[in-house]
Amino acid sequence: MTFRGWRFLFVLLVLVTTVGCGENPRTVESLSPSAKIETVQMLLEDLEAPRHSADGGGRAWLNPVPESVGAGGRDQFSICYEAGPEGIAEGGALYFMPSPFWGWSPPQTHNPDGPGFCRFSTESEGVELVPHDVPGQMVIASVAGRALEPGERLLIEYGSGPAGAAVDRFAEHEERLWVSVDGDGDGVRKVLIDSPGVDIVAGPPARLHLALPGVVRPGEIVGLTIAVLDALGNAGPSFEGEVLLESDVVLAGLPSSVSLSLGDRGRTRIEFTAPEAGVVRIRARVGEAMSAESNPMRVAADGPRVFWADLHGHSGLSDGTGTPEDYFSYARDVAGLDIAALTDHDHWGVDFLDASPTMWAAIGEQVKAFHEPGRFVTLLGYEWTSWLHGHRHVLYFDDEGEVLSSIDPRYDTPPELWQALRGQKALTIAHHTAGGPIATNWDYQPDSVLEPVTEVASVHGSSEAEDSPHVIYSPVRGNFARDALGRGYRLGFVGSGDSHDGHPGLAHFASGTGGLAGIMAEDLTRESILKAIRMRRVFATNGPRILVRMAVEGQPMGSTVELDFDGATVFIGVSGTGPIERVDLVRGGSVVASFPGQGETELQLTLHLDDLTQGDFVYARVIQADGGAAWTSPVFFEKSVQGE
After folding, report:
1. 317 phi and psi, to 5 degrees?
2. The whole model's pTM is what?
């Protein structure tokens, strides 16, 4: 075992044993309560396994290349492989694996009539291909009889039986059909980085999406994003037709209809002038087949604007869908977001970001290409995928940044990560903190500058509290965000999709729950967004763009307020995307009051809190009848406030 592997085992031993010092021994609680130790060992062993020069050799391509592959459909694929300069030794093997995520039929060689059946063949005389299945994952063709010589070919037919192969349910470009080669027969393989890819197209038009900004100024020119999608939220279905528009208030410049041609790919953006005040919602209809209502947009002459952000999602570069260009295009032109970050895993998937400067550069290139302050802000980022301490996404508010890998001994604990980021325009955000796939190790207090907020809602569910709607799967009692606040940690709340379907901003369409962040900032720039997040001027939703406001003694959410013997006055305002079921007021560790929404979409409350104590915190939780939810960031109480 190499130094890195031995260091991991030594550190792990130290972390889970009792540390003695004098008369006061203490137990170091320094792993996530759901740490995946075996996963880390597996990753390290793979990283350290010696690769022969023949491993990963050769090339592969589709023949024929499918003209059109429909999302969620069935198809057949023929992949030609040509051995590289060193061939494949007798006892070596070729591995085939479609994406293990999002609906592909697992390949298999034992049932010719079943889905995903694979057939291996070669015209090379004397070469025998012996098939093996790794159930649910991949198929292997071992080379027997003699070596496969350089330039010799074999054929993989995936979905060759009558059932074909089920295709990824999400539309995307360059979805890889992965081929790997063990060239010398030692059982260690290497992936062909240029494994063939297919483009998958959306299904038929099925739903309409309208997006407006959050809070704008009177008389401002604002944009309405209109997108026609398939049933799972895939963009680009074949559509041409007229979209009818209406609003309850007069909006200068808003047409009564807009026509889309096939070349528009089901999306457009139109501009109009904001009215003098109030809340705007726009409705749209396409015949009798599709209709939708936009999110609420509040028009206010003063106060912070609200920008909608999805700060967490994945592309096909790790375990997600599509290309970085597809990701940012969807965020801006389909979901109508103001801010987006692509956060592919550092060391998870088929190819690894921490070992590929080319992939990191490709992400950075698209971050720069799409960044347009005042219109659309992009952030460079990645996911620090620690299976020992929990997952965090790292966001850079500059064009440059580094992948500080969770399996690198220099950065494999949260304090080491924060130390490496110290002084940079960067943030870390812990996510799915209370449960699956791994809970956060809250024994490390979040850095007040680098980690001022936590993600409480995503496709995995809610990590706010045990009593929250759509609670996260595999929940760990005592590990929710509310529990972290109870430890004295001062954290704001954001939501983000953690989308793997290529749908930033709309992850909840396919999964039923998602996440978004409302960011209360002065303007749409990286500097202003970073400042707002560090001040905890943020709120979270589980996907719908519910507008929430909260002030305590006139101070906005995220503030620290000085204790007063007379208590504190709390204001809460909600503009929902559907009928409001109730608004909960959370104080300390529990809900202390609930206010019915009476089925309205607008609600304002003013109430008084008494008997406040040092360390108290308060926040609002909004629950709609349709399952939509939103959370304000907490306000914290202190005996004396010196400024933050």
Report:
1. -70, -15
2. 0.94
